[in-house]
């Protein structure tokens, strides 16, 4: 028959020495098909073991590591018992501020994870930009034309880099290359240029300017050759020196400056011509 035990204040059922004495060893067993506690349940022991086959929780969120009061100092997560194999674990690594999934030799009683072998996680292909991407999705984007990288040479030949290709940027006697993660490639041009046969501009009618640093000068340590000009250049405020068929000066080396002789073309005179003129003019 049903029976109700009612008290007007707290009610304690104590077996033997109890728990708080630190010496208690006895057990209180509630032997029934169902046990229901209408109020809140607080367990103050050091371990709670559930031997049921199915655990159903109505709460929307489950809190672990409840009594932690220090910011970002304790690992916490969920262990998955794998019998004689290493435990699997999903936890928050406080030292690294990141979530980790993998296997560990630790038991669930550990307070900090000091060994972890990262595991794999299977997910669906991403449906929007902020979803994690699977390997197959990334592979399909690379091989399927999701993006492309092209290198164009001096002769306008374009080389497309596709999956499986290797891009080799090699340095020479005057060029050094360095690469660093994740995707930075630095190409440095040396201070001295050797074995350079031609320097030219890449735009039509564009000037090529050689400029020294500070009070330095542009120095030519060898023969300076001038190709023949079909016509005289336009006079500007800059002195232009050029070559064409020799005239009265006997050098074929001409100059032109809009501020000299109103921009008239002048020829540099040779030593022999200068000597002859000096004799003729007395």
Description:
It is built from two helices and eleven strands; from the N terminus they run ββββαβββββββα. It has 282 residues and is mainly β. Among the domains are: 43 residues, no CATH class; 41 residues, no CATH class. The protein has a four-stranded antiparallel sheet, with no helix packed on it. The model has no long low-confidence stretch (mean pLDDT 86).
> Widest sheet: strand order?
1-2-3-4
Overall radius of gyration: 44 Å
The strand count comes to 11
Overall pLDDT confidence: 86
Overall body shape: rod-shaped
Strand content range:
15-25%
One letter per element, helices H and strands E, the order comes to EEEEHEEEEEEEH
Strand count, sense and closure of the main sheet? 4 strands, antiparallel
Task: Give the helix tally.
Answer: 2
Query: Helical proportion?
Result: under 10%
User: Termini distance?
Assistant: 154 Å
SSE class: mainly beta
What's this model, at a glance?
This protein is mostly beta strands and 282 residues long. It has two helices and eleven strands. Among the domains are: 76-118, no CATH class; 240-280, no CATH class.
Helices, strands, pairings?
Layout: E1 76-80, E2 87-93, E3 98-104, E4 117-118, H1 135-143, E5 149-152, E6 158-161, E7 175-180, E8 184-189, E9 240-243, E10 253-256, E11 266-267, H2 271-280
Antiparallel strand pairs: 1-2, 2-3, 3-4, 5-6, 7-8, 9-10, 10-11
């Amino acid at each position: 028959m049903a029976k109700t035990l009612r008290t007007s204040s707290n009610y304690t059922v104590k077996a033997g020495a109890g728990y708080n004495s630190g010496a208690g060893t006895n057990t209180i067993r509630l032997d029934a098909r169902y046990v229901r506690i209408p109020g809140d349940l607080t367990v103050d022991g050091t371990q709670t073991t559930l031997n049921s086959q199915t655990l159903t929780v109505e709460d929307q969120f489950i809190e672990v590591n409840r009594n932690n009061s220090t910011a970002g100092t304790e690992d916490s997560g969920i262990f998955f018992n794998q019998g004689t194999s290493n435990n699997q674990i999903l936890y928050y690594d406080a030292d690294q501020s990141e979530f980790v999934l993998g296997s560990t030799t630790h038991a669930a009683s550990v307070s900090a994870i000091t060994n972890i072998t990262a595991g794999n996680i299977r997910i669906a292909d991403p449906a929007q930009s902020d979803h994690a991407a699977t390997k197959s999705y990334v592979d399909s984007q690379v091989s399927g034309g999701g993006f492309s990288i092209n290198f164009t040479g001096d002769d306008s030949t374009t080389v497309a880099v596709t999956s499986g290709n290797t891009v080799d940027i090699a340095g020479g006697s005057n060029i050094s290359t360095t690469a660093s993660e994740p995707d930075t490639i630095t190409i440095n041009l040396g201070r001295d240029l050797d074995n350079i046969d031609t320097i030219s501009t890449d735009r039509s009618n564009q000037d090529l300017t050689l400029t020294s640093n500070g009070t330095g000068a542009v120095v030519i340590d060898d023969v300076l050759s001038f190709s023949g000009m079909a016509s005289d250049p336009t006079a500007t405020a800059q002195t232009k020196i050029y070559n064409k068929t020799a005239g009265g000066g006997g050098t074929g080396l001409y100059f032109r400056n809009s501020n000299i002789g109103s921009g008239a073309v002048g020829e540099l005179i040779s030593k022999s011509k200068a000597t002859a003129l000096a004799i003729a003019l007395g």
